[in-house]
Amino acid sequence: MKNIIKNCLKGSALGLMLMGGLAACSDDHFDVKTDLAGSRTIWENIVENEQLQDFRSVLQRTRVMKNDYDNKSVQTYAEFLNLPQSYTVWAPKDGTYDAQTYLSMLDQAAALKQTGDPVDLDEALELEYRVGNQFVLNHIARFNYESNKGEQEVNMLNGKKFQYNAGLSEFNSVMVDNSNGSINASNGSMHLLEGISPYAYNLYDFLKYNDDYTKAYEFMSDSVFETTEFSPGSSTPGAMNPSTGEIEYVDSVYYTNNTLVNRFFASVSNEDSMYVALYFKNSAWDNVVNKLKKYYNYGSSYNYEWNANRGEFTYKGASALKFNTDSLADLNVKSAMMTNVYFTTSNFPIADSKDSTQIIDYALTADSLKSTTYTTWYNPNKGQVNPLFAGVTPTKASNGYIFELDALNVDPAHFLMTKQIQNAYATYVKGATTTTGEVVVLTEENRNDTVLGAEDIDSYYRYEVSGNNNMTVDFALRGVLSGTYKISAVMAPSRIDLALAGKEEQCVFYVEVLDDNGKVLKKSEDLEISQDKVARYTLFEEFTFDKCYAGLPTGYESFPRLRFNLPFLYQLRKGNCKTFNLVKIVLEPCENSNE
After folding, report:
1. Which of 126, 283, 359, 590 has its CA 20 to 30 A from that of 137?
2. How far apart are CA 174 and CA 470, in angstroms?
């Protein structure tokens, strides 16, 4: 059974986490320093010290492993600390921690290796690696850290960063026994600790080693997303093997890369970063998946490959795209659950982006939190604790804070349906003087400041009727989910351009939503453009897309369209009604969308 040590924050009124990327590096490069005081090595000092016999036992039995599937290494950490290299060791004294926990893990690993079962071998290697990475290397740093300085940040060999304050005799919040001072050695120095140096998982390992998150980790670590590769350029080459003709490496470096997180600006294994994370436990996982699948309701087929000359998709009917809708919905929902849940504290408007109290207080009560994927989680109880976090005390990770969620207690529309603002470039234009519209750039010379809001507009698209035609202008609505949106448009009168200041118009039009087959799904009421101001017009207060167009198979794009209509009949009836002046189109998720 996997165990996880939680270092929960206590003591405050509130009770106290791909693009960057998940890139974990394992290496074994060390600089040699031989001018240190002391005639014995660190290992020899450990052997001689009666207060470190438990620590000695673990070091003798734990192999130096490059990763959790390294079955070739034979060197132990006892031998490692006997080398002529430079280390600082903070060694926990006997009786101040449960050494048997780690010895039992090593016993279990040894027993599993004897079965000959490949699955057992994998588990054995993982147990060994955990003892080395989470316990042994959590007490060893490269180079020699001074014992007469104040506060120092120490880079441990497992990648963790701890504070060492020699003046306060404190290392990683554990007291240092300074009764006999620092123990110098020929390859570094050693300090005695009054307890174990607490290990904190980073946001990635938290999932990996926690039984409450096996569903999340199984999805994230799938080979579709995660690969571990040997890096010859970063490794130290040795001699050539005469049998194989290949170079054998003295020191080998491996990089683990996870494309799922890597493409969304969240380096969840990076110890130099600081995040707030939302993780769904196994108990909540299936329920949240089922709730979110409503937004990935895929149709039986999709027309695709837009033909801008004809105003229709090239492949349709029998040639339309068909795929396994259930598997794609499952993939996209789970991807959203593992990528829209990270918030970098450097974007929090707080004085110190690494201060625990400020981070947690802001996360709990902020009106909204913008994730690294730019989705926005809104707080329906503004000024109070977000119901998303109701009853949850954050868990401290080495690179952030984790809210462990048993349920999704907020409207999922904002979790998935990002606000979309698109420019006014048309997908297809018919009956106009140009096939693409005309871009009008406003400057001090041509901006008509008597039009309210003109100072906020830098440019817009102008679509003008040609002759006596019915003019239609289509806009692609890309990436929409099968949810409910408010659809609006920001429009301007022609007289916003001083060259047309004297032009009087009474422009009335209507809009429609069409699916990828060109079928009209909904038609608006008639809308009239104000001649006095730039205004935002609500085209549809609520429009529900029954079919999802987001996350389609790679290489295929399909979309519904928003069509602006200015029929010739309207032009006759309304007089000088000849143009659309469009600034932008806005789609916003509606509350309780698809619930």
Report:
1. 359
2. 78
CA 443 – CA 454 distance, rounded (Å): 10
Question: Which SS3 state, helix, strand or coil, does residue 45 take?
Answer: helix
Reading the block at residue 492, the tokens are: 């301007």
Under 8 Å between Cβ of 257 and 14: no
Write out the DSSP string of 74-133: --BHHHHTTSSS-EEEEEEPTTSS-HHHHHHHHHHHHHHHTT--HHHHHHHHHHHHHIII
Give the closest residue to 548 by CA, choosing from 178, 292, 351: 292
Name residue 278's beta-bridge partners.
403
CA gap 563, 428 in Å, rounded: 9
pLDDT per residue over 261-278, tens digit each? 555 455 777 788 899 999
Six-digit token string for 51: 């207060």
DSSP state of 39: S
Sign of CA dihedral 289, 295, 300, 304: negative
For 328-338, write each residue's pLDDT tens digit. Answer: 999 999 989 98
For 330-334, which contacts have Cβ atoms below 8 Å and span 24 or more sequence positions? 330/289, 330/293, 331/551, 332/296, 332/550, 332/551, 333/289, 333/292, 333/293, 333/295, 333/296, 334/219, 334/289
The rounded distance, in Å, linking the Cα atoms of 47 and 31 is: 24
Within its chain, how far is the Cα of 214 from the centroid?
18
Determine phi and psi for 408, rounding to 5 degrees. Answer: -100, 100
Indicate the pTM of the whole model: 0.77
